[in-house]
Amino acid sequence: MNILEITALLGLVSVAAGFLGALTGLGGGVVITPAMVLLLGIDLHYAMGAALISVIATSSGAAAAYVREGFSNIRIGMFLEIATTVGAVCGAYAAAKISPSILGVLFGIVLLHAAWISARPHPAPRPGETGDPLASHLRLNGSFPTPDGPRDYRVSHVKTGFSLMFVAGAVSGLLGIGSGALKVVAMDRFMRIPFKVSTTTSNFMIGVTAAASAGVYLNRGYIDPGLTMPVVLGMLGGSVLGARILPGAHTMTLRRVFAVVVFVLAVEMIYSAVTGRL
Amino acid sequence: MRPTDRQVDEIIGALLRYGVLLAAAVVGAGGIWYLIQYGTTPPDYRVFRGEPEYLRHLRGIVTGIRGFHCRRMIQLGLVLLIATPVARVVFSVVVFILQRDRAYVAITLVVLTVLLFSLSGGSR
Predict the structure, then answer these.
(1) ipTM of the complex
(2) B41–A224 CB contact, under 8 Å
(3) Partners of residue B124 in chain A, C-beta under 8 Å
(4) Does residue B124 lie within any of the structural domains?
């Protein structure tokens, strides 16, 4: 296989990952690395570098649209980015010290979590909470547009959410993914932020979190231009296509298909890691 | 002048969109050049060796002494992509200063410091 052929193959796999990632709302970062490592035999560190850069592209592209629609809460994003960026830098430094087999197992666990998340329907909205005094102090409470006009919400458990964001950032830096699923869990489940605000604000934060790890990855030589080029362009193209089709798509069926794909990748990843093939 | 939150959302949206478009255009152009030059050679992605020194640092990528070539052009596009969210944070600092929101000026500066620490090579 020459460079032209592997570039075309990488481009196609990346378009598929970006497309599915946009349709299911999970982002393609988590599937592109195992696909590169398991299907194309690419070194784990190079794959992580290419995926991390692609995550910046797809999340910034999507965030541009969401911010203008008024769903993302920029103050929540900014405040929690302290935790995610510090976590990301720690994770990125640790990635160089940890053996590929352990990284592979961790990756498999994150994939299992993503499979589980995408197989379940969205949680129902909960009745309003009293909120956290710290949230009022930091002016995190906000409102989002609905068909019946703007609806207010309050933010709870700020400290728990902040700590979980450090973990999400560390996982992102350690594995070269956006870890959007973990960010949404922290905001939606713990901070009791409405689901749509959680997902769009998570998307908004992913670019900055990934940029924090990307500096370290670049300096360590994980980012190969020839390899990253088709992955970035493919994922970007796929996610734009996915976002166009999204309104008419049967997302629940798609999410189940995606869950199965991710589950298989998780098992393969853990198996390869344990048998020392990474 | 105190920009409203609505105006800020519009500008951040445009900043992210054009940043990604510009980066993708540079990566795409460099990519075509790369494929024309190296398309028929075998790839070398199976074993990790790490990139050469001049592709690892901002200074090397932007103003190297080895002359401009396709791999550096793609890397420059990737650096523009990394710079897009960083530019968003810089813009947020300015907005919070204009809105006289001291707490958020401080919060945003902390995030910016972490980003610059990472991009400058950190504790290497």
Answers:
(1) 0.90
(2) no
(3) 219
(4) no
